Amino acid sequence: MRTAICDMLGIDLPLLAFSHCRDVVAAVTNAGGFGVLGASSHSPEQLERELAWIDERVGGKPYGVDILVPEKYEGQGEKLNLDDLATRIPEEHRAFVDRLLREHGVDTTDSASWAGLGLELTDDIGERLLDVVFDHPVGLVANALGVPPPHMIDRAREAGVPVAALVGAKEHALKQVEAGVDILVAQGTEAGGHCGEVTTMVLVPEVIEAVKPVREVPVLAAGGIVTGRQMAAAIALGAAGAWTGSVWLTTEEAETAPHTTRKMVAATSRDTVRSRGRTGKPSRQLTSAWTEAWDRPDSPDALPLPLQTLVSEPALRHLDTLAERGDPGAQDLATYWVGQGVGLMNRVRPAREVVYEFAEDFAEATERLNDSLGE
Amino acid sequence: MRTAICDMLGIDLPLLAFSHCRDVVAAVTNAGGFGVLGASSHSPEQLERELAWIDERVGGKPYGVDILVPEKYEGQGEKLNLDDLATRIPEEHRAFVDRLLREHGVDTTDSASWAGLGLELTDDIGERLLDVVFDHPVGLVANALGVPPPHMIDRAREAGVPVAALVGAKEHALKQVEAGVDILVAQGTEAGGHCGEVTTMVLVPEVIEAVKPVREVPVLAAGGIVTGRQMAAAIALGAAGAWTGSVWLTTEEAETAPHTTRKMVAATSRDTVRSRGRTGKPSRQLTSAWTEAWDRPDSPDALPLPLQTLVSEPALRHLDTLAERGDPGAQDLATYWVGQGVGLMNRVRPAREVVYEFAEDFAEATERLNDSLGE
Predict the structure, then answer these.
(1) What is the reported pLDDT for A146?
(2) Is residue B63 part of a domain?
(3) Which range marks the domain in which residue B89 is found?
(4) Does the keyword Flavoprotein apply (chains A, B) (predicted)?
C-alpha cells in the first residue's frame, strides 16, 4: 500500500500499533505494520533493555516509541520525590479508596504503597529517555500527552526521526503543528486511555481541514479502530493511516492479565467509560465498580496529574494481583484502559494474524466502495 | 451509485436527509438524495399539509417521513391532556427555569406556557399519523425513538413501505430486527438529538455484525456525517449509506432561526453537549448557558419523557423569540439540537449544493482508497 505515512515510515501497511508490550511491537513490525512501544512509565534503564530486545528481533524493520513528557505536572521543577508528592494526597482520597476496597471485601493490608510503581518525575527524565531513544534505530518518537518540548523536537530533527503527537481537538492540532510536529494522531473520544470529547468520525476531517493551510502534515486516525474496514474508513476521511492500541490487548503476545482479557472479550462497546478517576485527566477504560464509585456525584473530585495516579495505581495493581487469584471483589473493581472498539474484540489471536486481517478487511472495504460507485 | 439502500429506496445516492423543514426534504429528493420529513411533533392535519406540499414538488421522486411513537411515556393510557400532565412538574423545576432566565436578564412574563407546543399525547396519535402517511406516496417510514409497535409494522408492510428505526446500541438493533424493521439506522453518540454513548466508527460495524446472523437488513450510518468523505467512511464500515440531519440545518432552505445558524456556523465540534436537560433522555445540542445550568451537579434531575419537554420547550421557544430580537441573555441561553459535525459546517449553502458536494467528495474519497492500494 502507499500513503504519505507508508512513504515517511517505510512501511507496507499504514497500521501503527501502540503497545506497552515489546512482543506486540516486534510482531506487528515483522508482519508489515509499525509497532510503537508505549514507554511512558519506563525508566531509562528499562527502556534501553526493551529497545535492545526489539532491535534483536525486527532485523532493521521500522518501529517507534511513545514517551510521556507532560507539559506541566504537580510538583514540576520542585525536584520532589514520590514520597514528598504523596503527602499532597488529601486524607479524603485515601479514605475513599480504603473504604471502596473494604466494601468489596478486598484485603487492603498492602494496597496503599506507590513504591515500585516505576514512576520517576525528575525534570531530566524526558532528556534521559530521549538519550536512550536516539541510541536505537527508532523510526518515530511520539509524545503521548501535550506538546513536545522544543529540545525533543530539535533532537529528533537532528536524528532524522519524525515526531508524532496525539491530539483530541483541532485547537491542539494547530498548537502541535506550530511546535514542529511531523505526524498528527487525531484521536477520537472512543479511544482507550486519555481522550477528548470529539469522535473519530468528526475529529479526523476537522483536524485535516484545520492544519492544511498551516503545513502539510500526515494525520493518522485513532480511536475505536480495531478492524481493516475502520482503517479504510479512516483513509476515506483523509487520514494517512490508522493508529491503534486497544486491539493488541487481546492478542496472544500481550501481557494483559488473563482476567482482564476475559472481561475485554466479553465486553460490548458500552462497557467503557471516560473518567478522571484514574489519572486526573479524562481517560477511557473498562467500566467497573472502581470507575462507578469515582464517578458518583458525592465522590471526591479527581486530583491533578500525577497525584490521582498515586491514589489509583497502587490500589489497581493490588486489585489486579488479587483478581488473578480469583478474589471476586477485586474482579468487580479491576479495570484497564481500553476503547469502545472492545465491543469488536471477541477472541484472542496472534498479533500477526490481526495485521493480516487488517490488510484483507481493508481491501474488501475498498472493493465495497468501488462496487457502490458501480465500477 | 448502487448500494442495498439505493435499490430498496430507488435512489441514486445513498444519502438520507432528515429535516423538520419540507423545503429541505423536497430539495434533497429532487437533487438525487432521499429527504425524510421529521414530523414527531406534527398533528395529523399539519402532516397532511406538509406531505401534500412535498408531493406537489418532487414529481414522484422518493421521500420518507419520521414520526415518533414512543414505547412508553409518563401518563400513557391515562388520556391526560397537557394541562393535567403539567401538574406533575415539580415546583423545583419551574423555579429553576424561572431563576435561570432571570439571572440572564430575560423577561419571563410569558415564558411558562406549554399551550401552542403542538404536542398531542392521545393514545391514537400514532394511528392517525400513520393514516396520513400511507395516504401519500412515501418511500420510507421511520420511528425516531424505540421499537415501532406491531400495528405500525403491519400497516407499512401492507402499504409496501419499508420501516426504518434508529438505534444507538447493538442490543437495540437486535430488538428492532426481531420486531420486523426493514432498515436500521445505527446512530453514533456524535449525532444531534437523542443519541447513545457509542460512536459511529464503532457502532456501525458492531450493529452490522450483530444483526447479520439474524436477518439481512441494510444498516445506514448516522452521527457526525456532514460530508461525502464521511459517507464513504460509512460505506467502508459496511453501511448501505448515510442518514444525516445536522448538515441541513445551515442550508438556505432550513427554517433554523438566524441567530442559531450563526452559532452553528461559528461552532467547533466541541461546542455540543449530550444532556438530559431538554427531553429527559440524553440528546446532543449546542452548548449554552441553558445546557450548562442543567448539567451542574446541584441542578434538578431531568424529569421523564415528556415532562422535561414541558419544562424546557416553552422556555426555549420564548428564548428563541427574544434572541431573534437581539436579547443578549436569551442568546446566551438559546440552544438547538445538532451533532458534533457542526464543527465542519462552516457556511450557509443551498441543500442541492450540499447533495452534489456529497457525491463529489464521496468519489474523491473512493479514489483516495484506491490510490492507497496502489491501484
Answers:
(1) 84
(2) yes
(3) 82-118+255-333
(4) yes
